[in-house]
Amino acid sequence: MSEIRTLRKILADNMKTLRIRENISQEDFAALCDLHRTYISDIERCTRNVSIDNIEKIAAALHITASELLQEDLSC
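Below the sequence we write its predicted structure tokens.
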């Protein structure tokens, strides 16, 4: 049986993967998103519900769309 991933987990995995790929620390990434570093950490650990507004901020900081950020098979 394959694992069913929640949107929260997909967001966390994609955000962390892209952030690391760009060699950006959580602190620097938080500044780019105008969010707090602990908020970014909480998202990456799947312990935080994220508003649509913040999903848009995160996507913009990664230079992708919000829908791309939530894709299960991110290929960018």
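The mean pLDDT is 93.
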